[in-house]
Each structure stands twice: as structure tokens, then as C-alpha cells.
Specification:
alpha+beta; 26 helices; two-stranded antiparallel sheet; 18 strands; six-stranded mixed beta sheet
């Protein structure tokens, strides 16, 4: 039987993919009673009542400018969410976070674009007041991006353009959260498959070893010649031949030594090109959950992971076309904070982020170990130069300690330590002053675009291109900016300065939402500062036989001057670690780098 005849035996797909249909959200009677709402209350009216409760708790005085600003923002956000069909998604997320709160499961303050929503703050999903921190709702939901389709009275959303709320939960209790979701959406939820591809560095290394019988050392030398751009490994062809933009300028400069090696080894090079970006193996998304309207058996094939968890057989992007993807991250840092605060008899929210002793401790750090985000060598070095004196400067340190932005370390450190700042242009001083006239955050680019005349929705499109480092899309904005400057009769140099900032931002700017509040509690570890720990002290150790209350005695204090080695792992990431640093291997065992090299263990990259 030929393939066409075989295929013709089967009927068309019973459930064509029309978009994401949100799971059914049923309001529990106890919550309706708490808000004095009747049983027939719609989901939107329930969400509005939740917001009202949160708003009243702010105790804003009626008739003030602040009161009017908050009420206008709430109305705008609620109307937008309702119009675009996102009400049930917001309630789905609220329900999960509410379960955590009712069961004393600690959660993070919020991260990413969700921090821009005042509604999420009022209903307790985030702990970040977007108005107070100058964050935009358009970062979370933009009318220009969101799309919905109504077919036979059913609303389907474009899954690639729906809101995305990621949240952090206690590492040791994340399983309870997952169990709640699995029970509530029985037969409609599972973990999500990830596909690992043969990328340029891994690819040419493996082909060289297998096909060319090359030694490990030689192939490591070859892969080290493939450059990175803004933290992303370049394609082999671009590294060999170079890549120019439309103006004939080098986007990627060729590497002569790499080209010479490839010319001498044409079979390895040409074979690598043929295999480039093919799927290598699959893994499991570390935090993503699929939640479907339909039973999984009717809409998505599944399989079992090595841990016997149910996993979609579709990858993340395919899953997003028909189901909700919810990220529930289990962070040890949240557990550490919660346990430390319990030991001190306080709540995380009780910590005074303006306490100068916190920042003095950071400025005098001899070792950054255990400090979230700052414990990396890069983060520590930036901290030592900037010497942050407030929460805003900690946020800036985390934004600068990234590929591309590191070049601005000295400039920001000078601003932080002297207060002296050179104006890029008076028109933008009010937007950039807090970061020493550096456009560190994507929100700053959004605000600047809005200031020269673009709507917030239009400005969000530009910010999105910056966030994705889509240099071609960013380039398309050059003429739009010129036209807007002329339309609004602004000085030409305003447009030139803004365009120069946008071009640079495409390589380095970070989103402010992710760290505005996330590091509030991270630097406090109890009554003894890290720099003051001495031999004989008893300090808490985590993840040791999973014992939350495990205390160990300090027997030595080490300055941390071990020699570091740079290694490149299979997914293309480069790490700087000592020979004693332990890494998770493919057999789920932690081993020191020295042993991994000697016995050729494979490092787990999922």
C-alpha cells in the first residue's frame, strides 16, 4: 500500500487547533461569601471584587491625585483583561497562589512582566505595586499583541500572545502545589517536553570526534574559537565566513583561524552543516506545566519521563498553541528566606530594605557564597565595584552583571560612588537619571519611546523586540523614530540620541520587573552577617539529606581563591568553576569537575 492510500484511511483531525481554550474556572462558594457576592456572580465580577478588596486595603484618600491614579489604572487593566478574554487566566493563577497562601507555602514577590500589573498586586498574585515602582501594564498585556477568536460562542486565545505569570514557591513544598493543580485539573495537566538541539559548538565537536577521530583537546580548541554575541553562540557558517547586515557592516566578524581549520577538515565542517539544529534528545521543562481544557487523551500525546512523571510529547512551543503553560518554580532561596525569618520570629515583609547595615554588609563582602544572583563571580565583581547603597543599586548591579552590559560597570560605579552623571540629552534625563544615564532596563526604553510620542502599546512592541534581541526588528524602528520626531516637532538630536540608545539596548538591556523586588530579602541571613562567621559558629545547611533544620559547625573559613577553569557544556553555555566544583551528571549524581574530566562523565544540561 502506498503512503497516500494508507493516510486516506484516517478521518481528518477531530479537534483542529483553534487556539488556547482556557480551563473551566468554577468559583468556590466560600470565596463568594467572603466578598458578599451572590452565587450567580460572573468570573469578571468576582475578579473586580477581589481588586476592590485589595484597593481598600491601600487606604488611599478619596479625592487625592494618588487615589484617582490608582482607580483609573485598575479600571483600565480590568477592562483590557475582560475585553481580551484573559479573566479566567488571571483567576486560574490567583487560585494557585491563593492555595499557597492559605497553606502557608511561601511564594516569591513576583517576577517578569507580571510585575507590571496592578490587578495582580491587588489580588495577591504579586507583592509589587506597579504604580509605586513605575512599571507598565503593557509589559504584561498589550492590546496590539493579544488576539482572540470566538467560534460558536467559544473564546480561543493565541497562546503565543497570552499573558505569562511565572511564580516562585518554596523548593521543599513545590510538590504540594503541583499536586493541587493535578487534582483540580484531573487528567488535564502534565509536565512539558523540551527538545535539545545540536548547536554549533556541540555539533562540530561531536562530529570531529566521531567522524574525524579527532582528540578531545583539539575539538575543545576548535569550539572555543566560535564567538558569542550577547551570550548567544554564533552559527558555524557565520563564525567561519562572517555575517554582514543590510548596510554592509559586520554583524559577526569571521574568525580566520576557524576558517583555516575548517578548510583543512572539509568533511567535518560540511557534515556539521547538514546536522545543524537537528534534535539531539529530549528533556523535561524544569518548571512548566500544561493545563488543558480538554482531557489530555483527547488533545495531546504523553509519555513518561525517567522519573515516571507524565510529560507531553509535544514541545513547549507546540503546547502553547492549545493549552495554558504555567510556570511554577521551586526556589531554594524562598525556603531559605522563610526558614530564616521563622528563626528570627519575623515575616519577610518585616525586613526594612532601607536598613543601611544590609548594604554595608554587601560592600564589605569577602565571599559572596549563598547570596542569590550575586554569588556568581561576575555578580560579585560588579558588586565590589559599584558597592550598592540601596535596593535600586542592587537591581542595577544584577542588570549590569549580564553579557553585553558589563561594559558599563565602571561608568555606573562612578555614578554610584560620586553621584556625578553626564547628561545624554536633557529630554531624557528624567527617565535615565536613576541609572546614571544608562538605559539599563527595557522599561526605560519603553518610557522614552512613549515620551517622544509613541503610544504605550507601540512602545511595548519596540521593548519586545529589544527583549528578544531581535536586531532586524529593532533596525526597522529607525525610520519610525525619525518620522515620530518630525511629527511631534521635536529636535532632531532627540531622535538620534534615542536611536543610538535603542541600538545599544538591543544587546544588553534587561527587564526591570524581574528584579525590582526579588532581591529584597536575599541579603539577610539571620543575626550573624556572612563576613562575621567564624570557626566554631553553627550555621544552617540546606539540602543535606533534605533536612530543613540541619545545623553544621564551621571548621574553617576560606577566602575563595581557588584557580578557576572555563568549561563549555553541551548546550553551549560556558562556566567558570574550580576542579572541586560539583556538577550534576547525566546519571543524576553530583560529581566534582576533576572526576568528570578524568572519567568522562556527561554533565546534565536539562
Amino acid at each position: 500500500m502506498n503512503p497516500a492510500d494508507f493516510i486516506s484511511q484516517f478521518s481528518p483531525i477531530a479537534n483542529p487547533v483553534l487556539g488556547v481554550r482556557l480551563p473551566v474556572i468554577q468559583l468556590e462558594e466560600k470565596y463568594l461569601k467572603e466578598l458578599n457576592l451572590p452565587k450567580e456572580t460572573s468570573n469578571f465580577d468576582f475578579l473586580r471584587a477581589l481588586c476592590k478588596k485589595g484597593f481598600l486595603a491601600l487606604n488611599l484618600k478619596k479625592g487625592t491625585k494618588e487615589y484617582d491614579e490608582y482607580t483609573a489604572r485598575i479600571k483600565y487593566e480590568l477592562d483590557t483583561l475582560n475585553e481580551l478574554g484573559f479573566t479566567d487566566y488571571i483567576l486560574l493563577v490567583w487560585d494557585v497562589l491563593n492555595f499557597c497562601h492559605e497553606n502557608n507555602i511561601s511564594t516569591g514577590p513576583g517576577r517578569g512582566s507580571a510585575a507590571g500589573s496592578l490587578v495582580l498586586f491587588l489580588i495577591g498574585v504579586t507583592k509589587i505595586d506597579s504604580i509605586k515602582h513605575g512599571l507598565y501594564f503593557e509589559r504584561f498585556v498589550s492590546k496590539s499583541r493579544a488576539k482572540k477568536t470566538i467560534i460558536d460562542g467559544v473564546t480561543y486565545l493565541d497562546g503565543t500572545l497570552t499573558p505569562d505569570v511565572d511564580f516562585d514557591a518554596e523548593f521543599y513544598r513545590r510538590g504540594e502545589v503541583l499536586k493541587y493543580i493535578e487534582t483540580k485539573y484531573l487528567g488535564r495537566t502534565c509536565k512539558i517536553l523540551t527538545l535539545n538541539t545540536l548547536s554549533s559548538k556541540l555539533l562540530i565537536k561531536e562530529v570531529g570526534k566521531v567522524l574525524g577521530m579527532k582528540a578531545e583537546d583539539e575539538m575543545t580548541m576548535v569550539t572555543s574559537m566560535i564567538p558569542k554575541s550577547h551570550g548567544i553562540v554564533e552559527e558555524i557558517t557565520d563564525a567561519v565566513n562572517g555575517l554582514k547586515d543590510k548596510n554592509g557592516e559586520w554583524k559577526v566578524k569571521p574568525v580566520p583561524e576557524l576558517k583555516e581549520w575548517c578548510d583543512k577538515n572539509p568533511l567535518i565542517y560540511e557534515t556539521s552543516l547538514k546536522l545543524n539544529n537537528l534534535n539531539k534528545n529530549f528533556g523535561v521543562h524544569p518548571s512548566g506545566l500544561l493545563i488543558s481544557f480538554d482531557l489530555l487523551e483527547d488533545c495531546c500525546p504523553t509519555q513518561l519521563s525517567s522519573d515516571k512523571d507524565l510529560v507531553s510529547s509535544y514541545s513547549m512551543n507546540d503546547v502553547a498553541s492549545f493549552a495554558v503553560k504555567l510556570d511554577v518554580l521551586g526556589l531554594r532561596s524562598v525556603s531559605v528566606i522563610e526558614d530564616c525569618c521563622k528563626s528570627l520570629g519575623i515575616k519577610p515583609t518585616d525586613i526594612n530594605v532601607n536598613d543601611l547595615s544590609i548594604y554595608r554588609a554587601l560592600q564589605d563582602l569577602k565571599s559572596p557564597h549563598g547570596l542569590f544572583q550575586i554569588e556568581t563571580l561576575v555578580g560579585y565583581n560588579v558588586t565590589q565595584k559599584v558597592k550598592p547603597k540601596n535596593l535600586g543599586e542592587i537591581s542595577a548591579v544584577l542588570a549590569i552583571a549580564r553579557p553585553g552590559a558589563l561594559q558599563f560597570t565602571e561608568k555606573f560605579a562612578t555614578y554610584s560612588n560620586t553621584g556625578v552623571v553626564d547628561s545624554i540629552h536633557p529630554f531624557f534625563d528624567d527617565v535615565l537619571h536613576e541609572t546614571g544615564n544608562l538605559c539599563l532596563y527595557q522599561e526605560q526604553a519603553l518610557k522614552m519611546a512613549n515620551k517622544i510620542g509613541f503610544t504605550l502599546d507601540e512602545s511595548e512592541q519596540l521593548r519586545r523586540a529589544i527583549g528578544k534581541k531581535d536586531l532586524e526588528k529593532i533596525k526597522s524602528w529607525e525610520k519610525k523614530i525619525q518620522d515620530k520626531i518630525i511629527e511631534n516637532k521635536l529636535p532632531q538630536d532627540v531622535g538620534e540620541v534615542f536611536w543610538r540608545i535603542i541600538e545599544d539596548s538591543g544587546g544588553y538591556s534587561f527587564n526591570k520587573c524581574a528584579f525590582e523586588e526579588e532581591t529584597v530579602q536575599e541579603e539577610t541571613r539571620g543575626k550573624i552577617m556572612l563576613k562575621d562567621v567564624k570557626v566554631g559558629d553553627k550555621v544552617k545547611a540546606y539540602n543535606v539529606t533534605n533536612d530543613l533544620n540541619h545545623f553544621v559547625e564551621v571548621i574553617d573559613v576560606i577566602a575563595g581563591s581557588k584557580e578557576l577553569y572555563e568549561i563549555t557544556i553541551e548546550d553551549g553555555r560556558t562556566l567558570r568553576v574550580s576542579l572541586e566544583h560539583k556538577l550534576l551528571c547525566e546519571d543524576k549524581v553530583m560529581r566534582p569537575l576533576k572526576e568528570i574530566i578524568e572519567k568522562q562523565y556527561r554533565i546534565l544540561t536539562d
